[in-house]
């Protein structure tokens, strides 16, 4: 006993209108087709649901019992289908993303602002996290995806490279190194270095030992967040190293950011998603938008992203310091 959805819709339309002609118009079928659907429903149920006469129809006791049930089922289904259609067409939805705390207060707000110009009805739930917590939040299902530096492979996670950036030094404006245009890693050695706990420093020191055996960097202070490191640099407690996307916060503290050479050490950043789990249409669209935005902001040949349609990619406030290089073999990254 399995009535079809079409049979239920025909019965509800007939019950609402009380007339075969009106119900057929409502269903966009012929009157004979509607009558056939009602007969099929009655045969499926084994009972009559409508008493017919030449002038009017009346629901039987069974019909009166089924009408509110079928009507509610159809209304719930239609609402669900409409909601799914809105999500598929990006007319509604929510995107949940975890990113390191520094990225959350520098690069991501620019991306979100550009996204909202194109998709104003899709919300963004941004979880600013310690860098080691980004993948944890993805794995737990708390967020749809995460953005973070390269880390050791984690089961059940897929990683797609988003961008690569070089390390840069940050010094106070009155520091002896501030007048230089570029620095080497050896230039940093005499000064107190403020860096981050965990894999940021571990991977950086490992890279330094591989490429610059004659240069030794010994952190004077280790902190959890780059925002803390920048505040300490502004207070004259030392210098630090960070990614170019931190430039807005570096300027806010009145500090100087300088490229580092000999060698140029880079870090790759990835979009992390759960393996073999489908993303919502909104989350998938945001990731595609993110890659387009980074590409537009990172390609000098593309010109100023602000010159085009602000809804078409990078925002008018995209900073040249956000530019990203081509992929190469590197690992690690800032919090």
What does this protein look like?
It is built from 12 helices and 13 strands. Helix 9 (199-211) links the parallel strand 9 and strand 10 (219-223). The protein folds into 3 domains: 5-88, Winged helix-like DNA-binding domain superfamily/Winged helix DNA-binding domain (Arc Repressor Mutant, subunit A, Orthogonal Bundle), CATH 1.10.10.10; 93-164 and 267-322, Periplasmic binding protein-like II (D-Maltodextrin-Binding Protein, domain 2), CATH 3.40.190; 168-264, D-Maltodextrin-Binding Protein, domain 2 (3-Layer(aba) Sandwich). It is rod-shaped, with a radius of gyration of 30 Å. Mean pLDDT is 84; it is low at 299-335. By secondary structure, it is α/β, with parallel strands linked by helices.
Any descriptors?
12 helices; D-Maltodextrin-Binding Protein, domain 2; six-stranded mixed β-sheet; alpha/beta; 3 domains; disordered C terminus; Arc Repressor Mutant, subunit A; 21% strand; 335 residues; five-stranded mixed β-sheet; rod-shaped
